[in-house]
Amino acid sequence: MSKDYYRVLGVARNASDRDIKAAYRKLARQFHPDVNQGDPKAEERFKEVGEAYGVLSDPESRRRYDSGAWFTGGSRGPQRPGAGAGGSSGAWQEAFRQAREARGRTTAPGAGPDLSEMFRDLFERRGGGTRTRVGENLEHNLTVTLDEAFRGAVREFTVEVPSRSGQPIRERIEVRVPPGVKEGQKLRVAGKGYEGSDGGPRGDLFFKVSVAPHPMLERRDDDLHLEVDVPVWDALLGGEVEISTPGGSGTIPIPPETQNGRTFRLRGMGMPRKDGGKGDFFAKVRVVLPTDLSTREKELLTELRRGRT
């Protein structure tokens, strides 16, 4: 392993899922590019934190990481780089496991796997014939950031797949993440799965998508929700507040006498949809009261209270 993801998030190796999520949210909020504009070190740290969360938040990816069965991956494109993906030479280990289970046994302690039996189990002919069969599909996990899910991304990975010769097929593959991709959606890379029998074509490679939580935004289907802090003066007298969305930043007007909890709806500012449209963006007002009032401010507020009673 090239990185200690537990150290990146500042948690113990036996940390619970809740602890890992809490640590990610805290660090992602601290180093988010929108909060640290123009700071490349903060953006790199944000990317590293997202990568660590992408691995440790998924039970299967975490298991593979802890066992040392991992593969490297990256991203490129106009989007901000984000979290890493689960997957690995774990496919190789999975092939060993499947072969042992198919034979109804486990490998004796200290003994290496029987490659000839393993590949005979994986690629055996059915019914004694010689007809070709398509290879089995292979599946990995892929964690993306909300920004990547909004804009789309291109990810590149190095994977290893068992072959009939006994030597794993190691190759660089590319997967395109479409804008608006959803939690649990599977992305297909044709012909990159297990080899078929008797010269049959290879199966497909699927990436099961997980969208990492955003430190400030909440996604609900195709809509995005954000709580915005509004000073009490602006809530009373009117003003404007700046908001940041994956699609860009801007301001929304705050009418006079805006109540705490009021929600403003921005149509078409949410997540992209397959049909070409977009969901909506909802900004919920959270009125912020001042602290450390001066003597004069207290006098003015006292006078205001008297005039209202």
Notes on the protein architecture:
Strand 7 and strand 8 form a beta hairpin. Helix 2 packs antiparallel against helix 3 (40-56) and helix 5 crosses helix 6. It contains nine helices and twelve strands. Mean pLDDT is 79; it is low at 71-129. It folds into two domains: 5-92 and 133-211, Sandwich (HSP40/DNAj peptide-binding domain); 218-308, HSP40/DNAj peptide-binding domain (Sandwich), CATH 2.60.260. It is an alpha+beta fold and 309 residues long. 30% of the residues lie in helices and 25% in strands. The strands form four sheets. It has a four-stranded mixed beta sheet with strand order 7-8-12-11.
Question: Can you describe this structure in just a few lines?
Answer:
With 309 residues, the chain is an alpha+beta fold.
Low-confidence stretches: 71-129
CATH superfamily of the largest domain: Urease metallochaperone UreE, N-terminal domain
Question: How far apart, in Å, are the first and last alpha carbons?
Answer: 67 Å
**Class computed from helices, strands and strand pairing:** alpha+beta
As for the CATH topology of the largest domain, it is HSP40/DNAj peptide-binding domain
Specify the CATH class of the largest domain. Mainly Beta
Element order: H for helix, E for strand: HHHHEHHEHEEEEEEHEEEEH
Q: Nearest-angstrom radius of gyration?
A: 26 Å
What count of domains describes the coordinates? 2
